[in-house]
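Lab notebook, bench 4. The sequencing result for the construct came back, and we need a structural model before the next group meeting so we can plan mutations. Quick request posted to the team channel:

Model the 3D structure of this chain.
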Amino acid sequence: MSDGVWKGVGHDAIAGLAQATQGTELILAVRQLQVEHNHGQLPDDFSIIVVQ
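Done. Here's the predicted structure in C-alpha cell form:
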C-alpha cells in the first residue's frame, strides 16, 4: 500500500478493517475511509494490493 493510504487513515483503522474484511471488500472499505477522511477525495498516490 502506498504511504498516502496509511498516512490518511492510520494503521489502526486499516488493521481493524483487515480483521473484518478481505479481498476486494477490504480495498473498497479502505478506499471509502480514505475518501471520508480526505474531504471526499483520494490522495494522488492511493494504491493497495491484497495478498491472501
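The chain has a mean pLDDT of 89.
Will bring this to the meeting.
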